Amino acid sequence: MDQIFLGWGARPLERAAKALVERMGEESADWWYVLPGRRAVRQFEEALARELPAHLEPPRGVSQGAWLEVFRPGTSVAISRREAVHAWSHVLRALRGGELKLALGVDRPAPDAAGAWWALGQRARDLHAEVSQAGMDFEKLAVELSGQSSRWALWAQMQASYLAVLHGQGISDGLADCSQAALRETGKLAFIVVPTGSALERRTLTELGPRFVSMVLAPDPGEGDSGFDGLGFLLPGYWSHAHVPLELSDWHVEESPADQARRACLVLQDWSQHALESGALSPRDVVLAAPDEEVRPFLERHLQRAGLAARDAAGSPLEQGPPAQLLQALARLLPDQRFTDAARVLRHTDMEQALARQATLEGADWPDVVACLDAYHEGHLPRHFRDPLNSGFRFSGEMQRVWNGLIAGLGELVSGRDRTLTEWAPSLRGLLQWIYGAQEFDEGHAQGRISAACLRSLVEILDAWESGSKPWLPK
């Protein structure tokens, strides 16, 4: 196995890009590279663009979770992770209560508890992935772990049902396929600062042999022990006892989160005023790690005061995006149409703008929605919006207009009948188009970037729902 040690210091991805360009030579089109996450892949693409000669075709990059499907391709289309969760939920719904208790140790959720079934589907899919990537299967576990043989035998039956459902739709499970698929005969692979791998990944890299190179984020040990195995993965035992060369001058002890944040800013200021060995730093060259969540808000505020924007390296969860929050608020509103849920929807900035924009198109004046909500609630204490509004009370006319505008915008979504996700998709797409179709997002700012990314993710989900009516999509 070929290994390249990148050393310590700043800008490791730039050093990795230079090393990979030298290693590829004129054969860059044959290469793939793998990094631990998609954000790192995007950053490496930028570093590689600065190093790769213009006449060469760039290599292709994937995150660690996707490369096995490239070098061990299946014979049919592989199911996506989100679809796999739905398919596993479908299998779990077919179990009896005692079987579900044996398999996952939980009582059976209510049939319409979609969130609970989705969570169980995630647990099942993750366990299936863990066993598959370890080069094991549930039948083997049932034999080797005799004390839990009945549980793992049940899992073997569930897995067979899951794969049969997929086969009936002409698709496959990528995880199961990878463990059986033959290694592709062409292509070379670079692992860049990837710390560990599954049993299947290790087997595949060993089979690649001279077509594989690992780039390790550590100094070259020469003839000594590097703390990494032949594939470039960390050896935990070595690093558990390794001496970390940090001088006392590199340590700062502070008493409070605010003091820690202030110290971090002072260190950044010091670095910016002194030329480091790797050259001047830009904000993207610096990573701030805060093991204690309590420190993060203080860090963000102090950085903002210094004119620096911080981004969470883990990204933002989809459900925290404004469009997703609005959909969640609407989901709470539609069954019972409670006033408090309606107020949450109508106070959402994106919904306010959509209603006001619609009124302008119709040539009508639009009231102050928040003032109407507060005044009407204070005087009437309504419980539901489905009840007739008190026409004799102040602001009742304006409140009725606001509610009518919302109902008109929701369209078919107010229908109470059950529908499959495929049937829901057009109505949800129309709703997003009505609210966001005329908006422009400034992705240079955090809020605009998060909203735009959230909408792209939601549209991908709707596209998947509409790609065909599958038996595992719930109502």
Structure notes:
Helix 1 crosses helix 2, helix 7 (138-144) runs antiparallel to helix 8 (149-168) and helix 19 runs antiparallel to helix 20. With 475 residues, the protein is mainly alpha-helical. It has 20 helices and five strands. It has a five-stranded parallel sheet with strand order 1-5-4-2-3, with helices on both faces. It has helices spanning 12-24, 38-51, 67-71, 81-93, 97-104, 114-133, 138-144, 149-168, 174-180, 199-208, 236-240, 257-273, 296-305, 322-336, 339-347, 349-361, 369-380, 396-410, 421-436, 446-466, and strands at 2-5, 31-35, 60-63, 188-192, 212-216. Helix 2 links the parallel strand 2 (31-35) and strand 3. The mean pLDDT is 87.
- Reading side by side through the largest sheet, how are the strands ordered? 1-5-4-2-3
| Residue share in β-strands | under 5%
Share of helix among residues?
A: 40-55%
Tally of individual helices: 20
**Rg result:** 28 Å
In whole angstroms, the N-to-C terminal distance is 51 Å
* Uncertain ranges: none
What average pLDDT do the residues reach? 87
Main sheet overview: 5 strands, parallel
Order of helices and strands: EHEHEHHHHHHHEHEHHHHHHHHHH
Class based on secondary structure composition and strand pairing:
mainly alpha
Shape type:
globular
- Total number of strands: 5
